[in-house]
Amino acid sequence: MSASEFASTFFLAVVAILLFCRLVSYVLGKVGQPAVVGEMIAGVLLGPSLLGLLLPGVEGLLFPDALRPVLNVAGQIGLVGLMFQAGHEFVANRPPKAGRTAGFVSAAGIVTPMVLGIGITLGANGSVNIFKPGVSPTVAALFVGVALAITAFPMLARIISERGLSGTRFGSIALACGAIDDVVAWILLAGVLAMASGHTAPLLVAVIGVVVFGVLMATVVRRLLAWTMGNPKLTAEIRLLVTVAVLFAGAAFTGEIGLYSVFGAFCVGMAMPRTPASEKVVDTIGPVIRIVFVPLFFTYSGLNTKFGLFADPALLIFAAICVTVAIIGKFGGCWAAARALGEPGPVASRIAALMNARGLMQLIALNVGLSAGIVNSELFTVLVLVALITTTMTTPVLSWLDRIDARRGTALPEPVGVG
Q1: CB-based contacts of 348, cutoff 8 Å, min separation 6
Q2: Which stretches of 198-275 are DSSP H helices?
Q3: What is the pTM of this model?
Q4: Where exactly are the structural domains of the chain?
Q5: Which residues contact 175 (CB under 8 A, 6 or more apart)?
Q6: Cα first-last separation, the chain
Q7: Which end of the chain, N or C, is surrounded by fewer C-beta atoms within 10 Å?
Q8: pLDDT in tens, 246-256
């Protein structure tokens, strides 16, 4: 395939992805699902789970093997931009105090599903084909545990924003918990990758790199962005250029130290000042990233998802157990922790429902595991199913809780600081 033919194939694939993702998002939006949920499902449908099953020739034409690395890179641009926005939104919506409550709930929401995930994976050793040859069952089990412990902070932030929950107590706590969850999860994932490589150097590099990156963010980057956004002599184009350059540099740095580009993008978003000029830059970046690049990542993940593998009864049973454990571990763990700290039942239930969504962040982790050679197709598909179910159930559960409280006449607490 010549360069011009390859470019034509890429553009055709992008057109198909964007239109189909928008169609599925529109249909699911009618039942209250966020657009990003529709894009997740559309990405899976464009892969071998549906399009490849019904029209394999069309799938091969649209998504030849040579095109997949390009889709992956384009999708990474979407993830970087989305996490940049998530970091910026977190600073805007973070509660006055995100200490004891957020820390305790987040810890319970990480430890409980992680322990349960490790247990069921080790228990499946020898019974289910989820272990890649050459990979220690312990490493695979730890990876599953980390994947189940993840919360989809960008999606959580989007749901809270779209439903007008930013000023509520449970929305504030969930935002703080989600941010903590994802930072801890990426560090744990770096540890798993270090174990998989058989060397401690990657983990050491990640720890030292985080310290260096944090210092740079708090000093050089924060001041540079503040100066850029506050200098009246700079044009809007220059502000956009500096922001994108800093964003990609941060993503590249954290990618090199093993924490992955999304972590750096989130931190740059947090360092971005909140001024009219900076909001204009964020608003300029947002639509292109959300509409064009993020769907490409979902499709790339979908091309690696093969629901036809569930024809194996053992794998199907394992998948059902994984979904159940994921929900019990995250929802149950967060609810129990919130109640133990004295949060009212309606608040605890909503925090748990929001924290249970894994979506985008779990898909990112799965793709990392796939590229690192830790995950086989069977385990990848199982965990994609977990991400889809736990994410799509979030909005219906929140609506169901609203209806219950409306019938009971239960009033949610006023949006006070999070202790």
Answers
A1: 170, 334, 335, 338, 339
A2: 201-216, 222-230, 236-256, 261-271
A3: 0.84
A4: 79-408
A5: 90, 93, 94, 95, 153, 156, 157, 160, 166
A6: 60
A7: N
A8: 999 999 998 88
